[in-house]
Task: inverse folding
């Protein structure tokens, strides 16, 4: 970045800018994606039918190629539903970033005065029974015929926020998640150790992750002779 700077650059970046950009990527970008990945695998481990369905989709798409690319991932419809459903139940930034009312307004029965700090509880919105059927249950299929997406246009599902302060790393975060999750599901079957219950307690912090580490046994998937590469 520093090397690309010239006298005539439209934007002049100092070393402090570069440090801040890197800090943003590490603080805002890594925990959130890692936490979402852990919740997705946790939910799938608790719902083996959904895990199997996702693996069938991925394996029949990749076939004997033995390698997943971003092009493959763009075709994986069920995987994308799993990610949406994970964001609904486990948005890592549960209260988004705080807002401040610029002027007097009314939200429902509440009068909000200027400069009031407002937190949007997207965790609660994602579990609101007035919006979602069986809200506590992990059901990726609920998105089959639904137009609801998480890009800030549908207020039922706001894991990345909305408006001018929407997460600028949304596309990168989603791409990383899709590719990493697809790889984990393609290369391994995941078993819950016998006699172990999966704990769902959350660890309250800026990004809300799983309190207890997730322990699963990976079983390497062997590509079969009859696996065909289908263009999915
Ligand atoms: C699963 C992945 C991610 C989730 C769920 C997520 C979620 C969020 C949320 C909810 C906000 C606040 C938006 C609001 O209040 O309206 C935010 C802000 C932000 N995110 Fe992300 N994020 C993710 C990945 C990333 C990545 C990969 C980067 C950078 C590489 C990133 C950089 C940022 C930055 C810089 C802000 C502050 C933006 C501002 O204040 O204007 N995020 N993110």
Result:
């Amino acid at each position: 970045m520093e090397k690309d700077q010239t006298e005539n650059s439209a934007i002049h970046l100092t070393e402090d800018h570069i440090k801040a950009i890197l800090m943003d990527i590490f603080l805002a970008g890594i925990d959130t994606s890692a936490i979402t990945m852990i919740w997705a695998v946790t939910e799938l481990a608790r719902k083996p039918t959904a895990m199997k369905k996702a693996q069938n989709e991925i394996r029949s798409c990749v076939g004997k190629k033995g390698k997943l690319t971003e092009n493959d991932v763009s075709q994986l419809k069920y995987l994308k539903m799993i990610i949406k459903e994970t964001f609904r139940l486990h948005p890592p930034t549960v209260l988004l970033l705080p807002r401040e009312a610029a002027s007097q307004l009314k939200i429902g029965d509440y009068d909000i005065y200027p400069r009031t700090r407002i937190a949007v509880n997207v965790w609660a919105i994602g579990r609101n029974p007035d919006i979602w059927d069986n809200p506590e249950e992990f059901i990726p299929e609920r998105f089959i015929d639904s137009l609801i997406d998480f890009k800030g246009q549908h207020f039922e599902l706001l894991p990345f926020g909305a408006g001018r302060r929407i997460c600028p790393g949304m596309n990168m975060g989603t791409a990383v998640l899709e590719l990493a999750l697809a790889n984990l599901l393609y290369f391994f079957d995941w078993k819950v150790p016998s006699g172990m219950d999966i704990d769902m307690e959350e660890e309250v912090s800026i990004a809300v992750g799983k309190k207890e580490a997730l322990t699963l046994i990976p079983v390497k998937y062997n590509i079969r002779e009859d696996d065909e590469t289908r263009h999915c």
